[in-house]
Amino acid sequence: MAQQGDPAAFERIYELHRRRVYSLCLRMVGNTTEAEDLTQEAFLQLFRKIGTFRGESAFSTWLHRLAVNVVLMRLRKKTIPVSSLDEATEPDDEGNGPRRDFGGPDLRLSGSIDRMNLQRAMEQLPQGYRAIFILHDVQGYEHNEIADIMGCSIGNSKSQLHKARMRLRELLHEAERDQAREKRRAADDALQN
Amino acid sequence: MKCTFPVPSISVRALHFVSIALLLAAAPSFANHLEKHFPVQAHPVVVIHNPSGRLTIQSWSKAEVQVVADHASDEIAVDAMQKGNMIDVRTRLLAQSVSPDQLRADYALIVPEDAELQIHNDSGAVQVVRVVGDTAVETATAPVVMEDMGGHLSVKTIGGAVECTRCSGRLEVFSFTGNLRLLQSHNSSVRAFTANGSIFFDSDFLPNGLYMLRTFSGSIAVLFSPGDSFTLQTGSLRGAINNEARLTPSVRAPARSSRFASGMFGSNTQGSARVEVTSFDGTINIRKRE
Amino acid sequence: MISGTECACFAGDFENWMDGRRSAAFAEHLAGCEACRVALTETEAICAEATKLGNEPWEPSPRIWLSLKAQLAAEGIIRAPRWNWRAISARSLPRPALAFAYAAVLLVAGVLVISKANQTEHAAWDKEPEVASSAAVYNTQLTSTEDQTMLAWSEPDPEIAAAIKTDLSLADEHISLCQQTVREQPQSELARDYLNDAYQQKAELLATMVERGVNLQ
Known about the structure:
Chain A is mostly helical.
């Protein structure tokens, strides 16, 4: 019905998918205004192309592929380049590898993960890692779906997800160290005063 | 822009008292009254079917639809029901045949700003203010007044006059004999047709907007400012065309359609908006705003 | 002591463990490697918190849909809603025969519209016979439909009845004027447009009368 231009059908599609698409866009860009623009752009592209959908994949997969492409294209237009999923995005990835991946005795996160810290850490991830982490761990897509959405292999999706998680661990550790340092400094200042 | 005039407070109170007294005296006495409140989600759909009476709709920031209905006759009943996110309001006949006087029911609705409205109100009057979801109105003879509206506006009437003030979005108006007035509006697309009524257009031309104004016998007046950017195509088979716009050929303009072979064609400044004005034998006036 | 190199050998098993595929070798390694246990625990905590993020009830602003719909309509991707008059009275709905006649009228109007759309920009004046024959067919259909409608029509509101009657005579006048104009100006596309509009106006008016409720005797 949507392929025939029925407005009610379009609205139904929008209602079903708007939260996930918006959530994806917001997680990727971290800004509500831009996320809303991207959401609108994603659905606009979807509805323009809906006549070409032949059912080769799940409709939601197709939609999210469009949304991710819209977001990545927008990010490419900004000064920070979007990392290719096939590239090693971190120069230290191949060098320090194992020890860094698995951490050391002084890098244990204390207590539960703080949501704000996690969100900040996600924003610091390279865009390719961020996209895959959001799709898999936040939105619950399987690797075969992510491969379809991102246009990469399943193996690639798995390895990038692993790297994203490891990088997030590092960022969270750094955030904790920074916070601990700030607390100590504040305590020292209080003692001196 | 609000203008305030200093008025002595005592006379204002007296004026209010007199106004209310006059209104009460003028208004028909309604024996039957209904008031209902419906909590709704985003973009509720509100459908109204009323054969005769006054209908006013305005908006508020609450996620709620308020329906107030009054009618004098016992030959009709007013129903307001909620089905999911849709509110259905209708006047129901309780007898096989009901005279026009007994058909009358007056409604006052307050809806969320993003509500979608579907209005069928044959006679009486329809007024809708500050709703930006899509609105479709059908009347037989009831005049329609819309102010500060948005979205896709569609009005169809047999003989009712239609007036849109400060509206935006897309507008489609069709009337057989009603006059159409489009004032201070900011529509991206206007399609207005009246067979025997007149069209008065005093609104903005948006970049890449499309404005099609058409009558059979009624006159058409379009006001423009010298800085407005539009391409004009106008034609009248048997009527006169009076044009004050300095039109120049423009490379941006679409190819002149042969249906305008006997009319005027050209651009004012950059020719961004597209304006088509046609009448069978009515007079067309393209006038500069003073 | 377990070395980082040994942990690196289990990198793939670490990923699989997170996906729910648990290998005995990695389980044995975990038993003796605090660093890997910590890494696993922290990664699981990150994933658990990330899942909660996915459940946040974020809603885009309502303006997005409104803006989107307007854009889609402007691009012609969605069709504008078509409204039909609703019969509000307690009388019976239109009979199938009359509705069929109305549909036939609109079908002829459609043929006229399509034939008009297929004309080239510089239609030759010898298209007039085509218009004349279409007009004859259309007139016959319209007259037949109008006769049936008028016989059965009964409008209780005199104001509305008067308005419809006035508009019907106006529609006839318009058709007559337009036919004359097309004969006088066979090359005028505007004249053909108006003739087509006049037919459609009459058909719409008859349809309105039918949909408001026709009491067939």
